[in-house]
UniProtKB/TrEMBL annotation:
Binds 1 zinc ion per subunit. Its cofactor is Zn(2+). InterPro entries: A_deaminase_dom (IPR001365), ADE (IPR028892), Ado/ade_deaminase (IPR006330), Metal_Hydrolase (IPR032466). PANTHER family: ADENINE DEAMINASE. Catalyzes the hydrolytic deamination of adenine to hypoxanthine. Plays an important role in the purine salvage pathway and in nitrogen catabolism. This is Adenine deaminase. GO terms for molecular function: hydrolase activity. Substrate binds at D276. Transmembrane segments: none annotated. The keyword Lyase does not apply. It comes from Denitrificimonas halotolerans. The keyword Hydrolase applies. The lineage of its organism: Bacteria, Pseudomonadati, Pseudomonadota, Gammaproteobacteria, Pseudomonadales.
Length: 316
């Protein structure tokens, strides 16, 4: 089944490029940039990937991002991910990047977006992988910071097609970013937002009604609200679900509790994605394989999930 899932043509719509930083590459970049990491080996770092919640993960995630310093670093990060996509027959990607993670530590936005975009362009030409880049705001920071990031990014408007919202969901509802999302839409950008992972179904409602998003990232806790699920099904609002991430971060204690296949059978446009694959134990095929192993996903269901991902693409 793994080999069949691996060859299945699919798209990835929810993946943080900084979250694809494998320990081996992290150590290589640290050496290149003369940065001392708090871990003494790749194995020690991998052992640290034992998270009890989203915040514990984010603490290591942001620390690891410190090794990204130059355009070449961002290119190498993105290219390594795209080579994994080639091996797993991922034919379209719409990855996120977090400018504020880098500008807050003195790395210019231009450095990150140029290195990433050059790798995406090379993948289109050399690997046949189409793509669109999503600029994400960090929700634990202020809306004013998000506005400043959007303004700083506008000279590079042709390099990204949408804005998103990620980071710590608890205490940072979508309503906090209503105005900056309105500004992004006025600039012709599409919008997506993380909602309904840590946060309650109410955050999904807010993302839809206040941010007017084209797609919900995660969204699994919509399952707790029958009225919300009815809307998601009726309007065919895509949900970019990340099964391994959801279990790694204790949204569900184990995969057998995950509702993704029940959501699929009810008619929701759910898709499978890897979120932060270097940290959560698998890329796209591994997420599909986990659904087969722990939930008994059939080939027909896998095909529908893959088709959903291709149909839920937003990049032109």
């Amino acid at each position: 089944m793994y080999d069949w899932l691996n060859t299945l043509p699919k798209a990835e719509l929810h993946m943080h490029l900084e979250g694809s930083l494998e320990p081996e590459l992290m150590f290589q970049l640290a050496e290149r940039n003369r940065i001392t990491l708090p871990w003494d080996s790749v194995e020690t770092l991998r052992n640290a990937y034992n998270f009890n919640n989203l915040q514990e993960f984010l603490d290591i995630y942001y620390q690891g991002a410190n090794v990204l310093q130059t355009e070449q670093d961002f290119y190498d990060l993105t290219w390594a991910y795209l080579k994994k996509c080639e091996k797993q027959n991922v034919i379209h990607v719409e990855p996120f990047f977090d400018p504020q993670t880098h500008t807050e530590r003195g790395i210019e936005l231009q450095v990150a977006i140029t290195g990433i975009s050059e790798a995406l362009a090379d993948a289109r030409d050399m690997l046949g992988i189409s793509s669109g880049l999503i600029l994400s705001f960090l929700r634990h920071l202020s809306e004013e910071d998000a506005f400043a990031t959007l303004e700083e990014a506008m000279p590079f408007r042709d390099l990204f097609f949408a804005v998103g919202l990620d980071s710590s969901e608890q205490g940072n509802p979508p309503s906090k970013f209503t105005n900056v999302f309105a500004k992004a839409r006025a600039e012709g950008l599409l919008t997506v937002a993380h909602a309904g992972e840590e946060g309650p179904p109410e955050y999904v409602w807010q993302a839809l009604d206040l941010l007017k998003v084209n797609r919900i990232d995660h969204g699994v806790r919509a399952w707790e609200d029958p009225r919300l699920m009815a809307r998601i099904i009726e309007e065919q609002i895509p949900l970019t679900v990340c099964p391994l991430s959801n279990t790694k971060l204790r949204v569900y204690n184990n995969m057998s509790e995950h509702p993704i296949l029940q959501m699929l059978e009810q008619g929701a446009m759910v898709t499978v994605n890897s979120d932060d694959p270097a940290y959560f134990g698998g890329y796209l095929t591994e997420n599909f394989a986990a659904l087969h192993k722990d939930l008994g996903m059939s080939q027909a269901q896998a095909q529908r999930l893959a088709n959903n991902s291709l149909n839920a693409r937003l990049a032109p």
